[in-house]
Specification:
201 residues; mainly alpha; 9 helices; 83% helix
Length: 201
């Protein structure tokens, strides 16, 4: 009975989602899907074997698990994702402090910074259906801030991380769309934040 009631509430919340949030989710998941196929295909050849298969499976299962959490408990999922966002930000700080070492490590081990971003942004996009503003800020933070840190750390070669960052343009666009949707949502209910004036008799 409780499960059926929860399902009905979930359906009601999904039906209230506007087209802008759906569009942002489609952009996010489309980009994440392409990156996952690319990274998974590369992992099958280098390092290959069970290590490549296992790493790809862990990546996909992490995104699916967090996305399911975002469907049922979007608020809790955003808290978990905010903590997980420390990982790409930490990599960005490493790039700021020693860009050469971070860049060489990725050349030999794979695009870890990109993997961390997509693992967070996929479930953040799902949570954005219900909490668009928080999700928009989270997506923009993990996709833009590490790149800016890397650009500063690269000094005269600042254009290298920025050129790579062009690949993340779909995520930046989806984050902006979530923010716009959250702003429109707030404007549609201005009376909820204003005290009611007494009716003169």
């Amino acid at each position: 009975m409780a499960l059926n009631e929860f399902g009905q509430r979930l359906m009601a919340r999904v039906q209230a989602v506007d087209a802008l949030r759906w569009s942002a989710l489609v952009v996010t998941l489309g980009f994440v899907g392409l990156v996952t196929l690319f990274v998974g295909g590369s992992a099958m050849t280098d390092p290959g074997g069970w290590l490549g298969v296992g790493g790809t499976a862990v990546l996909v299962l992490a995104m699916l698990g967090l996305s399911l959490l975002a469907v049922y408990l979007p608020g809790a999922a955003l808290v978990v994702l905010a903590v997980a966002a420390c990982a790409p930000l930490a990599f960005g700080l490493w790039s700021l402090v020693d860009y050469g070492a971070a860049h060489d490590w990725e050349d030999s081990h794979g695009p870890l910074s990109l993997v961390l971003v997509v693992v967070i942004c996929a479930p953040a996009g799902v949570a954005g259906l219900f909490h668009p503003r928080a999700s928009g800020y989270l997506i923009l933070t993990v996709s833009v801030v590490p790149l800016l840190l890397a650009a500063v750390g690269a000094a005269s070669h600042f254009y290298q991380p920025l050129l790579v960052g062009l690949l993340l343009a779909p995520l930046v666009a989806s984050g902006v769309m979530f923010l716009l949707s959250g702003r429109q949502q707030g404007q549609r209910h201005p009376s909820a934040h204003l005290p009611r004036k007494p009716v003169p008799r």
